[in-house]
Protein 1
Amino acid sequence: MKNGERLMGKAERRASRERLKQERLKAQQRAKRNRIVGVVGAALVVALVVVGGGYWFLTQSTTGDELTADLPPQTLQEDGSIVLAKSGAEAPVVDVYADFQCPACKQFETAAGSTLQQLAADGEAIVHYRPVSIFSQQPDPISSNSLRAAAAARAAADHGKYVEYNDILFKNQPAEGKPGFSVDDLVSWGEDVGIDDPAFAERVEAEDKVVDTYTGDYTKDLMKKAQDELGTNELSTMTVGELIAWGDDNGVDGSFMDGTYVKETLEATNAAYARYSGGDKFEGTPSIYINGSKLGNEAFNPQQLKKAILDASPGEVDTKPLASDDGDAPAAPEADAPDSGDAPQTDESPDAKE
């Protein structure tokens, strides 16, 4: 009996030692995984990060010059872009392509937005804001957030408040994949920047209906028909504007977007892809150009960006100012929605695909 007890005691001790060995091994493995995660995480902080077709480079310098002067005049252009420049300024032209749902664009604005505004106020830069939507074919709510914000910013430009509204949109950017930029918030932020004309709220509400139609049945029907008739390979080479034009010619009516800021945004996105080539090719947001030449990571460092601008020659804006209409903002569109049985017609409008 005693021999049996001794044998059992040895077996238990061996089992206990084996359990301790396994626990130490697991602890070592956990520590190793944590070290790997830590190294990868640290590497990502200094890496070039691709976000929604755009890029950013997180540098140690993330704050730009504080704006110490009043904003210079902001002039709405025929294509819906906005030029911020001191009257009579002869300076480099800085084109800023951004999507309000793009996290990298928010990073750029946080780092360098005030620097650009100060350079414009000093007459040392002509800042050309060119809002686009690279997310218009992404799943909702990313697509609707992007388009709704862009249309609202365009409406703010009608009231001379694009730059101020641009800033407040980025400060309130929703997390990717989360609903945001609600109509109520968009209207309220307009009031915050000094827009008290009821036409602004009316326009925001009308464009929201267009966004709903665009991101709903229209995009679904357009993509299905294009997939069936064109195939994946050809479809992958088409821009949003090309896809919409193809749909108009093949039974997917996009006329509900006519006259809307949603369509204007999509057309601006399409134009950006067509405007540049080679090393300056537009591939996503944010994209920053000085006199038509695309910047790299230095765009995200305020000091490097400022130096690049000050070292450049004067440039020329490639758009024309929108003719004034006695200061009145354009009326909200009353476009017809696509036929859908007995569904009521609404003021809707969208455009689509990257």
Protein 2
Amino acid sequence: MESSAVHAATIRLTHPISSSRPFLSHPFKPSNLNLNLNLKLQHKFPLASHNPSLLQPLSATLSDAHSETENVELADLDWDNLGFGLQTTDYMYVMKCPHGAEGVFSKGELKRFGNIELNPSAGVLNYGQGLFEGLKAYRKHDGNILLFRPQENALRMRMGAERMCMPSPAVEQFVEAVKETVLANKRWVPPPGKGSLYIRPLLMGSGPVLGLAPAPEYTFLIYASPVGNYFKEGLAPINLIVENELHRATPGGTGGVKTIGNYTAVLKAQSAAKARGYSDVLYLDCVHKKYLEEVSSCNIFVVKGNVISTPAVKGTILPGITRKSIIDVGRSQGFQVEERLVSVDELLDADEVFCTGTAVVVSPVGSVTYLGDRVSYRDGVGAVSQQLHTALTRLQMGLAEDEMNWTVELR
């Protein structure tokens, strides 16, 4: 596993800002990190009851694994009732690709979480030139923190940036920035089994542009928030409605990259569905209106016997990292996993249906409503959904041996 080495002498922190004044920077010193936070840390990390000796304290500074450690204290939150909403944390990470830098991002820095300033003519505000990613950090019982496949997020952002005519941080820059952000906010990583720290990297055209063109300057920013379950049902069946009039993506468009505009496109149908009591919306292809694409923010799988099928990624469907992981986990457990066109008729005839995504992880589907007809699958969580959810989350939380080499451990 990779080390969490971060060279603190090169990191800079800043004070909170308001809309009326810019960031004020000062050098970051590892010895005074906790003093600079100047925040009351109220909850000590609970020791593992079955073996207290397993829980070694995390490092008090952003340094390598050999540095002196101290007791880790957690933020004052109700960890048992953590939902999926924004909880502002201490620090964010900012890195820029200035005009004339030929696509090269300068070294980034940690700043106190706060508002950012943008020119009214910024490319992201006027032409939607923006991408985002999502990944999670989990706390292990020994106190260390695990990231799940951050390199995949870096590669997906680079792929999306090429489509959106944007420069992108190198994979190494992306991963190191994620590590620094997580370690700076480590008191916000929930206790084992209580949730995760959701990490949101953003890439945006921040430079001013009036005519339709790529922005002259770009900003890469990462913030984080502790989260619980995405759906209020938790690991319980959700109810979907199939949308056959509105579509989230078209062939040749940007449905296959994680651009901000893809999610605005689903808000109308999703809002209407939730007002009627559904958990979310499942979209069909816009050409034939018969093949499954994806749910508003996650991929879809259908199970029939020992075969698990998911729509093939061909430009209109986001190549989800959890999707990719479940395909590999499913095959390793003896399932036949297929990536192909999946019709709505197969959905209605399935033994089991589930969704995957960074936010939802694996979420079983209890019912699907299509053209007014409701099809229910089972009262409880399906056996395949449960099996795959357990296998994946045990990997993510460090409870199972990582034979896939997917996790990155921060000590």
Protein 3
Amino acid sequence: MRKNKSITVLIQLGKRLLPLAALLLLTGCWDSDEVNSLAIVTSAGVDRTKDGAIELILEIVAPQQLSGTGQSSGLKGGKGTTIVRYAIGDTAADAKGRLQWKLSRTIYWGQLQVLIVGEALARDGFLEQLDYLVRVNEIRLRVMPFVARGKVRDFFDSPFLLEQTKAGFLQSEAARVFHKPLTISRLIQRMSSDEDAAILPFINVREGRANKGGEPYIKGYAVFNRGRMVGTLTGNSFLAAKWVTNQLKNDVETVNVGNESPAQVTYTTLSAKSRLIPIRKNGEWQMNIRIESEINMIQNTSRLPMADPQNARLLEAAAAEHIREVVTQTVRDTQHMHADIFAFGEAIKRRNPHEWSRLEPQWNRFYPEMDFRVEASVKLRRIGMNSIPLGRQHKEHTKP
């Protein structure tokens, strides 16, 4: 009898508590911030001033109004409207604190997409300032870092006519130029590796032309050694670095085929793959760089019809020789910088960890003198719609 009475009491108590539990579920997160109270950051820049201080520049999505009403919609990027704010402090964290004083909303890093480092700070070393950003829980490790030529503020003052935000512009630019854009996570891994060398996309910025046209663009790579920028790779060196790191994407190159004039053929790369193969030769380590690619001819100014297999082989040989030359020169340039950006040491470590333990202490001296060899093979896959060059006279290709 007592047992039935207890069950009845529990059932009645449960009926009374059920509505209260439902209300608790509808209350939401009690400690969350409303969107209307946040200053959402999409891109950030850090630079060093002339007096040695740190400048922090943030691109913030601007608040917009709901159409047809007078109520605020919070921070919304519907039209891509953003505002840029900056502050100067002793460190990046100090500058962030000073910038927060100037804003009525709380700085929110959760939507940060790109980080731009000024050239002066990059050459002086920016890992100490990066330390603050990687400690912020809101920041994702897939943020893409860049180095800007000159001052970061010049980049934020430059136009970006084809994109709505600076972050959107750099993301589109990186997707266009690279097969797989670099992230902060990968940068930290490279900076923390045994070689302690890395590369970052180098942005060309025209100083003092904020309102005179000329969008910034990715000009090449900034080369880092021991946390400091020691040089750049541009032009053919930029392409060569992309060859070795498997970052080539729709790049256009031109080579000379044959001895007659004109003899230039322009092509784009359909696919490319490179491998690092360390070997021991005469008791010393040497690196073989093997590059395989397939190309698509897009213009033929020579008098050679590429539908002829013999002429196609001439083009393939010329393209392969071009790759060997530019890659060889670029690797030598990195050796002069004492920057193992292609991870030769990592390849040796994978091949023979025991030998690497002996080589590692003297790697900074061994790498600049390390012997290497570049092997390249090219296959022509497409020649376009015309088998005969348009520049060739009709009577030339009608002869038997």
Protein 4
Amino acid sequence: MAAFVRRLCHIAFHVPAGQSFARDLQRFFGFQPLAAREADGWRQLALSSGHAVFLVNEGVGTGDPLYGLDPRYAVPSATNLCFEVADVGSATRALAPRGCRVLVPPVSVRDVQGAATYTVVSSPAGNVSLTLLERADYCGPFLPGFRPLPSATGPAWISHVDHVTLACTPGSSPTLMRWFHDCLGFQLQPLSSGENPEVGLEVAAGSGQGGLRLIAMQTSPSNAIPTLVLAEPLQGATSGQDPLENFLAQHRGPGLQHVALYTPDIIEATERVMLSGGQLVTPPEGYYQQPGKKSQILAAGHEPSKLAEQGILLDGEKGKFLLQVFTKSLFAEDTFFLELIQRQGATGFGQGNIQALWQSLEEQAAKGQET
């Protein structure tokens, strides 16, 4: 099926009232208030940094009729991906025969700045639903019914969402891959030259026990729609600290594990996060002492001691490099974290960085158990 989604509009989250998630996005990551709405016991706050837009839904109760949220998912979580489409009606008619359950039939909303039409459909990725939005005729800052909010001026140090990662149960990623291909037109994006398209990229865990399988998909090579990454744990972990298994347990099923935010200057962005008190994952001991790592960092034009000080991972080859840093969970439950990413010519994901992140999360989990 040809892709009909035009771009990612926003990512929605559901959190209990009074949680600090929206404040943390502003304080630690430079997000600015965009628009807000209060209705039916829910407070909805849209925040943006560059083209990255998060909608934080704060409320009480067991479910939200706006997204048809499954009440089983009572933990704070990313719950909805909103994509812009040209025609909501035709998109809904195309998806219904392909097994998409319509949670919210097409509805039009209007205010003084114009009108928009949306529908919400289910996905097989746990509690993640999809909103298809048609708003070509809307002139407001976000959506009808939201009041604009003042925000600070100045350049955003995050430009867009680079990729989103869905954590899957063991053996389920091929089914999800076919669904996103058949329903939304996502195509496989190989992560390595020797990757089996039916299996994806398998990465061994840092401990040597278990690991993970990654499948990356794109609709087109553009910033408008981020890469979709499916991640599932491989069998064999014995330590009880498998990061994906830990997510699946605390999240109570599959879901959106993390969002990668692209920054043109990861050193500046990381400094801002650290100075404001944001918590970052510490790379495994010895990462920067690996054979060839120092020369690799220098070849990319960076200072090894600076990257080590900030915990920034670097991987790449043939003049194409990838820099990444990861936050700790933004919720008390280990159900969501952010990644900052900068690409210097690299289009995929560094396998060395994946292994380093995995080992870091295992070490973090082990320390948590000790305390």
